[in-house]
Each structure stands twice: as C-alpha cells, then as structure tokens.
Amino acid sequence: MGETKIAAYTISLGCPKNTVDTEGLLAALGPGLVPVDRPEAADLVLINTCGFIRPAVEESLAAVLECVEDIKALEPRPVLAVVGCLVSRYGPDLAREIPEVDIWLPTSELERWPALAARALGLEGLGPALPRRVSTGPAHAYLKISEGCSHSCRFCTIPSIRGPLKSRDPDQLVLEARQVLDTGVSELVVIGQDVTAYGRDWDEKDALPGLLDRVLGLSGLSRLRLMYLYPAGLTKGLLDFLARCGGPLVPYFDVPLQHAHPEILAAMGRPFARDPARAVDAIRERFPDAALRSTFIVGYPGETEAHFRALAGFVERVGFHHLGAFVYHPEQGTPAAALPDQVPERVKQERLAAIMGLQAGISQGIMAGYVGRDLDLLVEAAHPEWPGLFTARAWFQAPEVDGLTYVSGPGLAAGRMVRARMEEAKTYDLVALA
Question: What's the domain range around 284?
Fold first, then answer.
C-alpha cells in the first residue's frame, strides 16, 4: 500500500509552525503523495488553518468554504480535511455548520492523522512516513523546537489553542535537522511560540544552548536563524552563549515586544513588563551590528495618545531593521476582551498607519546603507515574471516576513549562495548584481 498514489491539494495558512505541521502531515501520506495545484484534481484536499485572531479566522473559513464550493459537484468527490488552530478553537461549531468536511482535526490530535486519512481515502493503510516533506523550497526550512506556550499574555489565544509549553526531544530535533539539511536546504530557521523557553518545562535552563550547539555543528548548514525570542528569555547567559557561537548563526534577533510603554505592557500581562530598551541594549552590547525585528500591537485597551507617542518614539530611537504592527482584536475568551477603555477602530487604524509610515522611513534608510556593499545572498527562487531575475535574502532578511533582495547575474539558481553587489535600495527591499 506504500506505493498507492494520493493526489493532494494543500493550503497551509498562518505561521511557520503551521507550515511544519503541514509538512509532517504530508510526509505521513507516504511516498505515493503527488502534489496537485487545484482541488478538482485531488484525491485529498488538506487545509491547515489559523485561528489566532479574527482576520486569520476569517481567512481560514473563506478557504474552507471556497474548497467546499469547488469540489461539491465532483464525482467522486475528494476527501476534504481541515486541521489546525481553527479546529482547536471552534471545532464542534464548525462541524455542525460545514458538514461537507470529512475530517476535522485539532492540533492536539495530529497523531491521529494517518489512520483518519487512510480510512477516509478507503485505504488499508498508508506507506511509511517520510522524514518531513519540506515545502519551503531548496533555500530554507523551519525547525520547530516546541509546541504551545505557558505565558499568560492577556490578549493571546495560543495557550488555549495549542496548550502549555511542550519542548521537543533534542535527539529527535537534531535528527530532523540532519534529514532536512540532507535534502539540500542550507538555512534552518528555529521557531517556537517562545524559542527562549525551550526546555523550561523540564526545568532545564541550558536546553537551548545545548540544542543549538549540536545543530550548529551539522555539515551543510550555511545559516541558522532564531525567531520568536521573548525579551524575558534573553538572559545574560543566553546572549553570551550566542555571542560565542559565530557563524553559521546570524546576528538576527526577532524579539516580539508588543509595546514599549510599561503601563500597556503590564496591562497586556507580558512576561517582560519593564523598559523594553533593556533587551535592545543587551543585544547591541554583544552584537553592535545586529539586525533587530519586532512586532507591536496598537490600540490595546487603555492605550492613550501618550502611550502611543511613547511607542512611536521608541521605534524611532531603536531603528528596527524590520517591524510588524497589528491592530488589537478583542478575542473571545481572552481577559483583554473584557477590559474597559476599548480603543475605537478608527483610532486603531490611524495608529497602525502612523507606526508603519514611521517604520517605512527607518527601513529605507537602513536599506540605503547597504548600497555599494558586497553581501552573500541565499537565492530563493526565480522571479515568476522577469527572466534572469531571482529573489534572494541577505543575512538580515528572514524568509516570508522581511523584505527581499532581487538579484540578477550569471550562475544563479535556487538554493545557491552567491556574492553580489547591492546596487539599489527600495523601502524594504534591495536590488543586487551578482
């Protein structure tokens, strides 16, 4: 049965942690998996959903309903499987409202997937699982080191959706990293809800350095990047360890601060409710040229104009390479949804536009500083519209969330590292010649 062909159409929504889950689900279908690019050609339609905030819920629901519409008249009809965070959050209600879905699977029950998929497809069983079916191309892949979160941020639904922190076994992670690198991938991006919390559920304070030590020693690794570093976890010991690592670890720090004013941070229940400048200063003390990325929420309940001005001033002073900002959404079941002094939607949108306008100027200035310099670029893919042009990333550009470098020249290919001269700066992107 391992060679049974299964044509699968896949949609993976939300964060890179979902991407890793999707890759595992696809691998469990065995070597007979054949990806297709439209649901009408599939035996199986798999949608991995996000349910973190209202816009993500709406996007996930729209994807499910669109696929229902696309396949409803087909005979035989593909199996429709909906998995992930949306199911964890609203599963019973969804099953009643959308009976056309054959499999509903929350994140806490993904181990049931092979049996459920085999039964729905009418198979006696599925072939042996592949190590992981990497879907992000030849340049980079994600390494998810933990599940869930044990913080108590008052705006966040993640603990209720994915449960408390559960660190993955280091031996399994090193094996997985080895298998991914063996496919030709050269950059690993380490992810978790809070990467700095790795091993805390075992009361093991040096678990993350121990894991990174082993992964950094793997052959074939050109870059290692850490994402989702909570400021409270950036201890002196961890920063000192990272400073000793050297390459292939890149000095890129993704620190989700969420706000800069201590009153709003305290109201959010953040695990780091003091002056966030301390975390920035601690990083730059050891990594003077570090690329900093952060995310901020504007319009949190009780955020005054003075609070927002403090946030904008902080963004201007720090000079983040990259910044994401989002308006606050009162999510059902979170403590923040019941707080007084909810900020009007119009004010939220005005503040979002202001903070992103400020960041655009900062980013353009930083990008302009690279013009004329030679940098190593990791080529991601050929540009779909311009022959001879490729998308690539410098060390300070993380996949999917940051800007790109557009490069042309001889010998370019996806997954290859090339040296190129930065010729032009855009607001968030660079243009280079190899």
Answer: 140-368
